[in-house]
Amino acid sequence: MTDADSADPALEGWALPTAFRDPAHAPVAADALELVGGTPLVRVNRLAPGAPGTIYVKLDQYNIGGSSKDRIGIGIVRSAIASGELRTGQRIIDFGAGNTAIGYALAGLATGHPVTIVSSPSLSPEKANLLRFLGVDIVPGRADVPSDHPENWAAIAERYEREDPSNWWARQQSTPANPQSHIESTGPEVWAQTDGAVTHWLAAVATGGTVSGTGRYLKTRNPLVQVIATDFAEKVDDSNLRQIFERRPGWEELERDFPPNIELDVIDAIETRSRAEVIDYGWHIARTEGLVLGLSSALSLKIAVDLAYRVDPGSVIVAFSADSGRDYVSREYNADWLRENGFAEIADTYSPAS
Ligand SMILES: Cc1ncc(COP(=O)(O)O)c(C=O)c1O
């Protein structure tokens, strides 16, 4: 850094590396799928100045397919082939927001299984195009209608399997192979990368596989590790999940309408933030720390930063990043999209109209 750079308080704690990483340690893989798992942790240096806790982000966008879901794509397909559940040439079907389908596609290409994903209109254009590029069939479905509605995305996956025996529904929401993938990989990685010093584990919840599997593993190593599930306030604050988890009055009467892979006995707390706060923070993270994180990652990191001020000195907080901000640059990380979709204030903060 020059003297002029160091005089700018906004640049404090930020510097170019003095050298590139040791070329002798650049990994060599025997094939693409070997590049799943083993993702880096990066320390957060500027978002929580003066906080007693240290924060790291586990960057699962470093998996070859671009998200944490590569792990479960491999884990679920491998286990279903081994048990004989997935037979030669069968088509893999599931529903979801796109990342798992990329994982299934990579595992399916390697094993001769085509893939169909039932998705919802919130599928980002970046992911949709990548799925088509990988040969995945995309079937439109809806997440916002009850499970007995014919357009419900789970109902469509169930129907595809029932009506055509050449289809096999992978069931990421309930298969034990989902959390097991994290018990075998993500958990041991976080433990090793922090030399067993991790005190808090935060991950966003959809199927629950990441927070539950990794959390379960970390608690076997140290039962005091705090496992924090993160979610969007709009999705979870009034949900049965939250009411049952917090044993709010009347919780015993509520239906367990959330994925079986959300293991409540592993989770210590559910923390939420609003969608607008998280989108804003995603931009802030990029501009402050140089990290380009997806929205569920920005959510977990925001909660990790707030937590870092409340924990004991020496605490090591690991927030999970499931995918990259690159997957959102035509939506939440695009000023025009923000202005058209009710988030003009965020657009004006980071990308003022000139
Ligand atoms: C971007 C992103 N973040 C978080 C999650 C949640 O992970 P899990 O399904 O393991 O709860 C998903 C899963 O769909 C995801 O795609």
Task: Write a brief caption for the model.
With 354 residues, the chain is of the alpha/beta class. Helix 2 crosses helix 6 and helix 6 crosses helix 7. The longest helix is centred in the middle third of the chain and has 17 residues.
Blueprint (SSEs and pairs):
Elements: H1 3-6, E1 41-43, E2 54-59, H2 69-83, E3 91-95, H3 99-111, E4 115-119, H4 125-133, E5 137-140, H5 153-163, E6 167-169, H6 177-193, E7 200-204, H7 209-221, E8 226-232, H8 233-236, H9 240-245, E9 269-273, H10 275-289, H11 295-308, E10 316-321, H12 335-340, H13 344-350
Helix pairs in contact: 2-3, 2-6, 6-7, 10-11
Largest pleated sheet: 6 strands, mixed
Kindly state the mean pLDDT as a whole number? 95
CATH topology of the largest domain: Rossmann fold
Gross CATH architecture of the largest domain: 3-Layer(aba) Sandwich
Estimated share of beta-strand residues: 5-15%
By DSSP, the count of extended strands is 10
Portion of residues within helices: 25-40%
Alpha-carbon distance between the termini? Answer: 30 Å
Q: What is the CATH C level class of the largest domain, in words?
A: Alpha Beta
* Cα radius of gyration in angstroms: 21 Å
